[in-house]
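In the previous chapter we treated chains in isolation. Here, by contrast, the input contains four separate entities that must be folded as one system, with a combined length of 396 residues.
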Amino acid sequence: MVNSAKFDRQQVIANATHLFWARGFNGCSMRDVQQAVNLRPGSLYASFGDKETLYREALLHYASQGMVALQALEQQLVCPLAVLRQFMRQALASSLADAPDKVCMLVKTVHELGGAQHPLAKLARELLQQMANQFARLLQQAKQAGNLAPATDVNALASFYQMQLIGLKSFAQLQQNPALLDTLLQQALAILPAEKAH
Amino acid sequence: MVNSAKFDRQQVIANATHLFWARGFNGCSMRDVQQAVNLRPGSLYASFGDKETLYREALLHYASQGMVALQALEQQLVCPLAVLRQFMRQALASSLADAPDKVCMLVKTVHELGGAQHPLAKLARELLQQMANQFARLLQQAKQAGNLAPATDVNALASFYQMQLIGLKSFAQLQQNPALLDTLLQQALAILPAEKAH
DNA sequence: ATACCTCTTGAACAATTGTTCAAATATACA
DNA sequence: TGTATATTTGAACAATTGTTCAAGAGGTAT
């Protein structure tokens, strides 16, 4: 008999992700986590390892959600540039809603642990780079479709998208005024290349 | 006899600020602080109160440094728009150098403690708003000098500057590549209004 | 049932946390 | 110098931290 656990592993990770996202690695104790996932310490440690290992799992879970969201848009929309623009809008919309915290969990992790070259910060940086690579891939498609100037540096532009996104979401944490946030989003989108009219 | 303390109060606050900035509120213990400022617990508590009070002092110290930097630029440069542009360049340059951490301490504080409506996060938000108000004041000057369209919403534009700055500094924490960061800075500056040629 | 394996439980551990306080030391003024 | 006042010291506190582990519970196969 193997793995006859009562709990739903994915649900546990999802709950832990929410808590870690909202309060950070140092901001919540293992007892907080135990309560949030409804597991006693023994079960939690036996199934998920220590705090750092569990947080790592949470980071991966969070990042994969972002990837899924991007892929979903890719299937709905034809133009890669439209995908990116819609992804930005969507990201800020979730900032306005009751997300556990409005800032990207990967960015928060780097901010909290990045100074000490923490392995979790390293992972978060890698996952952010993966996201930027997806942006670059979409931009490359747009370029080949003739929607971007041939000389465009898609990697640099992808980083610029990511920088705008990080700025918007961080700012949303400071100023909850929806009208102002929408203005900023429009300004940011105005910078970025749009699908050509036809 | 009053205040015959041996230590330099300002130096203690400066050292504490460095540590809190680099490692966050939850990331460093009072023992870490005691070591960094070279004070035994009794002296530290007698002179600065508890951890939260000391962190508050650090936030104020940090924010005033930013204000001073902006005012220094204001005395060097005539055009208010040039002041803002130079402030952006300077902020990113200090990100490339060995700042304790590359992200604004106010932003880091809101990220770490903001979800729980922590009083320190509230203060950090207020200080960020003060900075945005300074930006708006400079933009208002530029508008009156005819360097901005009369219809410009200076408060919204000030927020946009701040959002760009937050994005740049956060991104600098992820990607240390100086060439890429410089490209992003140029792109961000290209968006923002510049002094008219004459 | 009985034996066996797996998972769960919660008490317990050592280390660390923020903070206090009585004793020791230093300083100022007579 | 002697006394009073201000400051520094470091041991100590209770609470919380991350983590472990022996004992119990639950299910499956013989």
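Residues 51-76 of chain A form the longest helix (26 residues). Residues 113 and 119 of chain A are 9 Å apart (CA to CA). Compare these points with the single-chain example from earlier in the chapter.
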